[in-house]
Amino acid sequence: MNRVGLERKVLSENDRLAATLRDRFETHNVLCANLISSPGAGKTTLLERTLENLNPHARVAVLTGDIQTENDARRLRRFGFPVRQITTGGTCHLDARMIERGLEEWALDELEMLFIENVGNLVCPSSYDLGEAAKIVVLSVAEGEDKPLKYPSIFFKSELMVLNKVDLLPYVPFDIAAAEENARRVHPGIEIIRVSCARRMGLGAWMAWLGARREKMLNARAAVV
Amino acid sequence: MNRVGLERKVLSENDRLAATLRDRFETHNVLCANLISSPGAGKTTLLERTLENLNPHARVAVLTGDIQTENDARRLRRFGFPVRQITTGGTCHLDARMIERGLEEWALDELEMLFIENVGNLVCPSSYDLGEAAKIVVLSVAEGEDKPLKYPSIFFKSELMVLNKVDLLPYVPFDIAAAEENARRVHPGIEIIRVSCARRMGLGAWMAWLGARREKMLNARAAVV
Q1: Is the CA virtual torsion B120, B65, A169, B182 positive or negative?
Q2: Pick from B2, B40, B165: which is nearest to A6 by CB?
Q3: Helix, strand, or coil here: B161?
Q4: In which domain, by residue range, is B167 found?
Q5: Interface with A, mutate which of B150, B172, B174 (most A CBs under 10 A)
Q6: For residues B203 and B209, what is the distance between their CA atoms, to the nearest angstrom?
Q7: Is residue B223 a part of any domain in this protein?
Q8: Over the range B111-133, which residues count as b (16 or more CB within 10 Å of their CB) and which as e?
Q9: According to the model, what pLDDT value does residue A3 have?
Q10: What is the Cα–Cα distance from A72 to A143, expressed in whole angstroms?
Q11: Cβ-based contacts of A171 with chain B (< 8 Å)
Q12: Residue B39 to residue A6, Cβ atoms within 8 A
């Protein structure tokens, strides 16, 4: 009983911090995207492809989370954008406090987009609001088409499913129509983009989605102000 | 502060239950293996191949965990062995209490081997002892060779790493020597078996490992009694 009570308290403290972060992102017109997937589904590679496709003057930054190692930050820094690694030391998800600390040395008014790469875990990160405008779930075709039904929370909460590694479709038992139907069964409004980050396929649609999503945020804000 | 204290209390309650389960498994000469991996690394397919390779009179049972759906139990029941699904309803790991309940209708003295398929999650299940004789981590070559360094706890605690989907090696950027070196850097004594469950490769070594592991357990017990 105590455990449930405390979990609620921890989550509501996180929600309070996340609301503050969301305010800050909106005030500074920063689109914040929270990328979530299983280990090895391709979040870091998707970010590598994103950064290499951006105008080098784009005002974009990345916070990348892992339990151990600085590997991902090293991979992502090659593209010249600001990148910080958040090493959780065992914790299975990022929380709003970690994001707040990760942002400490950055001026939000110098950014237009912030990517958060969550810890590789299809379960726990879905419970922690980070103040993001959008959660994005990355699913690899090597994982199987049943995953949206087995891990419904993250598919329900994500605006977009990026279906990665489609170059492997000839070699794996993966029914792509069933995968998309399963995602839509959990979340009828979910958008879906098929990509292969390894083979640089489908990335135009992904870059266009990001641009349109930031426009949408700016327009929504203009309508309010 | 409270949170850490409570987490310890929950874990120590789990440890107490797990110790009771371990006693029961040992008393009845049941080898219990706890399979852990990311979502979609191939735990269920490995179990399908295992059950189809067993003598139909083998006294083997499976407890299979998922957040939602009974899909895995349906897949595994086709082989005629007793299978029960544990649906956690959101919880990111199995715990010893769920195993205790899962076993309620089975007589342990009618079993020689129990497989537990954990929730697909490379992080949280490593913290929960289920009374198993051995944890086994399944890593798919589609996930990348850096995973043992990024998720060290489960590789440190597993006796065996089953490296699955080796049939995909020609199509994915995966350095198999580096993956094995990374696993051994975290856990020098870890055993490694390469398989492709989809193509039925390497399964002889896996079945032999299971047989040898049960022998080892029986011999250790004979030495004590």
Answers
A1: positive
A2: B2
A3: strand
A4: 2-217
A5: B150
A6: 10
A7: no
A8: bbbbbbbbbbbbbbbbbbbbbbb
A9: 54
A10: 21
A11: 167-168, 171
A12: no
**Other C-beta atoms within 10 Å of B204: how many?**
12
DSSP state of B93: S
Do the domain assignments include residue B184?
A: yes
Over chain B, what is the mean pLDDT? 95
User: Contact A34/A134 with Cβ under 8 angstroms?
Assistant: yes
A160: tokens are: 């977009």
Domain count for chain B: 1
Residue entry with tokens 């595994």: B76
- Quote the CA–CA distance of A40 and B28 in Å, as a whole number: 39
Regions of chain A where pLDDT drops below 70: 1-7, 225
Strands (E), chain B: 31-37, 60-66, 83-87, 113-117, 134-140, 160-164, 191-194
Average pLDDT estimate for B40-54: 98
Q: What is the pLDDT of residue A5?
A: 65
Burial class (CB in 10 A: 0-12, 13-18, 19+), A224: exposed
Which one-letter amino acid corresponds to residue B164? N
CATH of the domain at B204: 3.40.50.300
Task: Please check the confidence at residue B3 and state whether its pLDDT lies above 60.
Answer: no
Q: How many CB atoms lie within 10 A of CB B90?
A: 12
Which single residue is written with the structure tokens 């580096």?
A: B178
Percentage of chain B exceeding pLDDT 70: 96
Cβ distance B92 to A172 less than 8 Å, yes or no, reads no
Task: List the strands of the sheet with A60-66, edge to edge.
Answer: A83-87, A60-66, A113-117, A31-37, A134-140, A160-164, A191-194
What are the C-alpha distances in Å from A136 to residues A105, A159, A203, B119? 25, 6, 15, 22
ipTM of the complex: 0.92
Q: At what angle do helices A203-224 and A43-53 cross, to 10 degrees?
A: 80
Q: Is the dihedral of CA B19, B21, B22, B23 positive or negative?
A: positive
3-class secondary structure per residue, A158-181 = CCEEEEECHHHHHHCCCCHHHHHH
Cα–Cα distance measured from residue B147 to residue A166, given in angstroms and rounded to the nearest whole number: 21
Region B113-121 average pLDDT = 98
Report the residue of chain A nearest B87, measured CA to CA: A150
Residue A5 carries which side chain, given as an amino acid letter?
Answer: G
The token pair that represents A190 in the structure block: 């979910």
